Automatic annotation (TrEMBL):
<feature type="binding site">
    <location>
        <position position="36"/>
    </location>
    <ligand>
        <name>(2R)-3-phosphoglycerate</name>
    </ligand>
</feature>
<keyword id="KW-0067">ATP-binding</keyword>
<feature type="binding site">
    <location>
        <begin position="59"/>
        <end position="62"/>
    </location>
    <ligand>
        <name>substrate</name>
    </ligand>
</feature>
<feature type="binding site">
    <location>
        <begin position="358"/>
        <end position="361"/>
    </location>
    <ligand>
        <name>ATP</name>
    </ligand>
</feature>
<keyword id="KW-0547">Nucleotide-binding</keyword>
<dbReference type="GO" id="GO:0005524">
    <property type="term" value="F:ATP binding"/>
</dbReference>
<feature type="binding site">
    <location>
        <position position="116"/>
    </location>
    <ligand>
        <name>(2R)-3-phosphoglycerate</name>
    </ligand>
</feature>
<dbReference type="InterPro" id="IPR001576">
    <property type="entry name" value="Phosphoglycerate_kinase"/>
</dbReference>
<feature type="binding site">
    <location>
        <begin position="21"/>
        <end position="23"/>
    </location>
    <ligand>
        <name>substrate</name>
    </ligand>
</feature>
<feature type="binding site">
    <location>
        <position position="36"/>
    </location>
    <ligand>
        <name>substrate</name>
    </ligand>
</feature>
<keyword id="KW-0324">Glycolysis</keyword>
<dbReference type="InterPro" id="IPR015911">
    <property type="entry name" value="Phosphoglycerate_kinase_CS"/>
</dbReference>
<comment type="pathway">
    <text>Carbohydrate degradation; glycolysis; pyruvate from D-glyceraldehyde 3-phosphate: step 2/5.</text>
</comment>
<comment type="subunit">
    <text>Monomer.</text>
</comment>
<dbReference type="InterPro" id="IPR036043">
    <property type="entry name" value="Phosphoglycerate_kinase_sf"/>
</dbReference>
<feature type="binding site">
    <location>
        <position position="156"/>
    </location>
    <ligand>
        <name>substrate</name>
    </ligand>
</feature>
<feature type="binding site">
    <location>
        <position position="156"/>
    </location>
    <ligand>
        <name>(2R)-3-phosphoglycerate</name>
    </ligand>
</feature>
Amino acid sequence: MPSFKTLDDLDDGQRVLVRLDLNSPVEDGEVQDNRRFDRHAETVAELADREFQTVLMAHQGRPGRDTFVSLEQHADILADHIDQDVGFVADTFGDDAIAAIDDVDSGEVLLLENTRMCDEELPEEDPEVKAETEFVQTLSAEFDAYVNDAYSAAHRSHASLVGFPLVLPAYAGRVMETEYEANTAIAEKEFDGNVTMVVGGTKATDVIDVMSALDEKVDDFLLGGIAGELFLRADGYPVGHDVGDMDLFDEQWEANQAKIESMLAEHRDQISLAVDLAYEDDDENRAEIAVDEIEEKTQGFLDVGSETVMTYSPIIRESEAVFVKGALGLFEDERFSVGTVGALEAIAATDCFSVVGGGDTSRAIRMYGMTEEEFSHVSIAGGAYISALTGQELVGIEVLARE
Ligand SMILES: Nc1ncnc2c1ncn2[C@@H]1O[C@H](COP(=O)(O)OP(=O)(O)O)[C@@H](O)[C@H]1O
Ligand SMILES: O=C(OP(=O)(O)O)[C@H](O)COP(=O)(O)O
């Protein structure tokens, strides 16, 4: 088990570069406040209170998606959470960023621009390669220490996550510490009864890999969201039509078709797919259709239907443990919240061991009147928490623990 240094080991009076995960939902260009701000505020407030010169890095969205925006709004939202100004510079490591970093005094906090706007951030490469990038070499010269608080991005081998620990003394932030402990303990838990996993969201590639790794631990996979539609497509249903400017299906279908087909061939009895789906009708109301009645791929589906919720709920009620990764529909729009809220309410109504993961999905709990206390653990991580469940080492944590 890796052991890393924490903020308790950090000597005072230093210039600290901190990686957070503030990746958030964006609606009509507006960044939505969510649990990640709340949780990371603890680390940032502690560093500011201890009078460090604190400079923050984070990412938002992926290039090409409409959630790929600047971090300017994130600085204001974070400032509200820590009750102190958070400066922002629209640069990752160029002259403007260096000048702004030089201006940071003890106890002040500055946020740099979206790390994914830097070309060297994203390609998944070994930490040793990332450590040599101009991005890491230039920025690290400005700091005495690096803190990684981004547990929920620790499964990505990106420069801001794995490069800096090789060139600066590295420490885990408070979120990294608590999420790591909780998720590792959960991964080691054994259950006597049925284990169910609710699988949805938009990152189908992440969840499909995890489903194959967990096929022995999980008895029932209940599918919805984009992953669910890809499985329905493999079953011959004409679904998977993008709505608006979302581009979620074709690339993920190509990347996963073979895996999905073999999962269906080998584990059919463990996989439940939606029997009906919801869409927006001509009057902008929610309408539902049985999957058997869908004739052509001309309609985008934004939620599982009510019949599906009635099929999934008893399976949840009879489970000893339920893990949620990803929403069953576009729950941010109340019309398409039926699947996600139905599954979460079924979990909350039982005394099963339950974990809800994902920055977006964990937001649905409060949005629809539930409380986090109704679940055993609510993680702000999605992909990282399910990677931890499969016993995989997260690269961002492995480098943090290196001597
Ligand atoms: N059918 C769908 N169409 C569009 N978006 C969907 C659909 N189903 C789920 N979603 C979206 O998936 C998001 C969660 O996706 P993801 O990033 O995979 O999960 P998380 O952040 O919880 O790990 C939610 O914000 C929800 O709106
Ligand atoms: O939101 C995140 O992941 P999650 O949706 O799996 O919780 C992380 O910020 C990682 O983002 P990425 O999946 O675009 O690399």
